[in-house]
Protein 1
Amino acid sequence: MNKVLIIGGGVIGLSIARELKKKGISDITILERGAVGKEASFAAGGMLAPYSETNKFDDFFHFCEESLHLYPNFSEKLFEETGVDIELDKAGTLLLAFNEQDISEINHRYEWQKKAGLAVEKLSATDVHKLEPFVSPDVLAGLFFPNDWQVENRKLVEALHKFCELNEIKVIENTEISKLLTENGKVIGAESKTDKFFADKVILATGAWTSLIQTEVVSLPKVKPIRGQMIEFRTAKRLFSKVIYSTSGYLIPRQNGRILIGATSEDAGFDRNLTEIGTEILRSVALEIAPSLMNLEISEKWLGFRPFAADGLPILGEIAENLFIATAHYRNGILLAPITAEILAERVVNKTNSRYFETFSHKRFQAKVVR
Ligand code: FAD
Ligand code: GLY
C-alpha cells in the first residue's frame, strides 16, 4: 500500500498526512476544496482545554487528555521540522463566576474533577485579581486549570502545511471532491467535477462538509456545521496571561497583544455572514470578563464552521474497504489533532486497533434492529 488520498486540508487532514509520511507512506495527496487550513482550523481559538471543555470523566475526556499530553512533543518536533513556532502556551486557564448560577456550575466542575484526582484549584475573587489584574471587580470566584493550554492555531496550520511542502506531500487546492470512486464495493479513489484521483486508501477529513460527499459503499454519518463567530481586540502590551472562560464565552490572550473573544454557537448552515447580534453577544462576553476592554475598537471579526455529529463526539475509523474517516471534532479539533493523526495513521499503515475506534465509530448512528 503506497498511495493515500486525504480529502480535506484542515488541521485534521494535515496532521494525518504528516503522521502517514513519518510512518513511511511515500505517495500522499491532500485534496482541498478551497485553500488549505482556512476553515474551522483557522477560525478556532486554539485552546487545548480538556478540563474546561469536558463535563465528565469518560472516554471523550481521556481522548482529549491523551491528545493534550502529545502537544509538547508535537510542537517541539514541528518546530524542528519546519521552523514554525506554534506558540504552545502552558500558562493555564481560568473559569470565572459572576453570579450564583455560575458559582453552582463551577462547584459542580470542581467536584467531579477533584474526585477524579485532577489538578483544579478554587480561587477567591482576590486570588483571581492577583493572577489577572484586569479581570472585572464583579468577579465572585473562579477555578484555575493549570493544565489547560493554548496554541496559535493559525501557526499550527501554517507549520503543518509547510511540513507537507518540505516532505513531498502533494497539496491540491481549489478541488472539491463530490464523489468517491468504487469498484466491486471497494473505494479506489475520488472525483471532482473535472478530475479523477486514484489511490489505495482514501481518508475523509472533510470537517463540517462530510455529509455532502456521495458514495455507494457506506452510509456516511450526518455531520453539520455549527457556526462560531469571534471578535478580536489588540493592545500594544499583553494584558492577560491566561485563557479566561466565563460561563458565556472566553477570552484568549495571544503573545502579540491580540485578544480573541469567542464564540457564538449557531445552527445556521453554511451562512458566512457575520451578524450584529453575534458581535453584541461577544462584546458582552468581553465586558463581563474585563470591562476595561470597553474603550477598544474591534480589530477583526471572523467565523468558522465546527463539524458537529448528533452527539457532539468525533467520528473516527475505517468505515468501508479502503475508506477511513476522521471528522466531527466539533469544539476540540485543534486539541484532538495529534491523537487523531496518530491512531488513524497507525490504522491505515499497520491496521492497529484503538479502543477509541469503538467509542467514536460511525456505527453508533446506524438504526438498531429491535427484536
Ligand atoms: P476544517 O478546518 O474545517 O477542515 C476541513 C477541510 O476540508 C476544509 O478546509 C474544507 O474546505 C475541506 N473540505 C471539505 N469538504 C471537501 C471536499 N468535498 N473536497 C475537498 N475538500 C473538502 N477547537 C479546539 O480544539 N480549541 C479551540 O479553542 C477551538 N475553538 C474554536 C472556535 C471557533 C469559533 C470554531 C469555529 C471552532 C473552534 N474549535 C476549537 C474547533 C476546531 O476548529 C475544529 O474542530 C477543527 O478545526 C476541525 O478540523 P477539520 O480539519 O476537521 O476541519
Ligand atoms: N472550543 C471553543 C469553541 O469551539 O468555541
Note: DSSP finds ten helices and 19 strands in the chain.
Protein 2
Amino acid sequence: MKGYSPQALLRLNERYSIFCQLIEGDALPDHRFTFSAKDNLCTTEFQARAGSRILEGYRPPFDATPVHRMRQEGGLLIGKTNMDEFGFGTFSTNSAFGVPRNPFDEERACGGSSGGAAAAACLIPGHVSLGVSTGGSIACPASFCGVVGLTPTYGRVSRYGLIDYGNSLDKVGLLSRTVKDLSHFLPVISGPDPKDPTSCVQPPLDLNHSREGPLALPTECLEGLAPAVKEALLRALDKLSVHLGVEVHEISMPSLRFAMPAYYVIATTEASTNLARYCGMRFGVPEREYHQHFNDYFSGVRSEQFGDEAKRRILLGTFCRMVGFRNKYYLKALGVRDLVLEEYKKVLADHSFIVSPTMPFLPPRFDEISKMRPIEMYRADFLTIPPNLTGLPHISVPCGYEGGLPIGLQLVAPHWEEGGLIKTAEVWERHFHYHFPEVSP
Ligand code: GLN
C-alpha cells in the first residue's frame, strides 16, 4: 500500500466508488499491512450498513471476528467496501451507496456482491480485502476484477459480526492480487471461535497438504459460455496439464442443473427471516412518527428504505416458507442440496478438483445490465452457486484476458481442503502472468 495516503484513497474512490466509508486524516497510522472489510462486517470505527439505507447510522460497538483477527495481526482497516444491498446481486448495482466501477473499464461492473472488495484488491497493491460469499459473491467479483478470490469451507471462518444474508450459506473469505497473500491471511482469519458455534467443529487448516489426481471438468459447466470464456478455459486447461502434469477428465454432474433454483429458494427463505428485524425500531431511520399502528409504521419504513431487489427477495422467501408451501419448496430445496453434495463427493473421490470458468461471460457494461431481467441475473451465477450451496471451498484465479478484460478460472475442492486449492493456485500463478490496470491515484 506504499504511497497511498488517505487523500489518494479518496481520489481513487471518487473515480471507482469502491468504498462506502473510508479512513480519514492526513496520513495513515502505523501498520504492517492494510485491509478492508465488506460493508456487512461489523467494525467499531465505521457504520455497518450492508449496502442498505435501512441500516443508516448503525455503528456497531464490536468488531466481527475476522476483522478483529486481522487487526491483531497488525492490519490497518482503511474502509468498508461497497456491495449489493445485503449481498443481493451479481454486479454490485444494488448498493444504496453508489455503484463500484470495474478497474479494467469504468463502464463495466465489478461483479457482486463483494464488488468493492474485488476492485480494492485490484487497485491497491498489497491490499487484502475481506469479502463474503453466499452464492458466489467472492468468486464472481474476483473474476471480473482480475484478482484471486478464496471462498473457504462453510464454517472455516467465524461469522460472528457478519450481517446475515442466508445463515446456512454465508462464508467470509479473502480477495487479493496474489495467492501468496491469501495463504498468509487464511490462517489468520480461520479457526474456531466460541462466538460462532458453526466454526468450532472444523479440522485444523493444513496448508502443506496438496491434492493429487486428475481434474474433473463437468460438461454442464461448458454450456452457455461466451466464446472468449470457453477459449480461455481450454487454453488454461492445456497449460495446467503441461505444468502440473495432470489429466483433465470431462465428466457429467446432472444435479448441477438443479443447484441454482434450490439456492434461490434457500437463500431467499433465510434472507426473508433475517430481514424481518429491520423494521425501523432498533436500527437506522431516526425521528419518525411513532404514534401509528405498528403495521403501518413498519410497512412505511420498509417500503422507503429497502431497495427493489431486497423487496423481491423478501416476497420470494416469505412465499417459500408459508404454511402449505414450506415442504414443497424449502424442504425440497434442502433435499436437492444433499443430492448435489453427494454428486460432488463422488466426483472428488476420484479427482483432485472440479474445474470450470468462474463466470460464463466477460464483465458486462452497465447499459447491458440495466436491460437484464432478474432471472437472467440469477442465471449468471450457475457456475459459482453449486460449490456455495454445498459449502465447498473454491478459488477463482485470473486465467486469461479478452479485449483487455479478465477471465477467471474456478477450482472446487472437498470440504476443509483449502490447502490443496492454495497449493495448486500457487503453481498456476508461477506460470501465468496476471495484468493489473495502471491507475495513478
Ligand atoms: N448473486 C447471488 C445472489 O444474489 C450471490 C450473492 C452472494 O453470494 N451474496 O444471491
Note: The chain is about 35% helix and 15% strand.
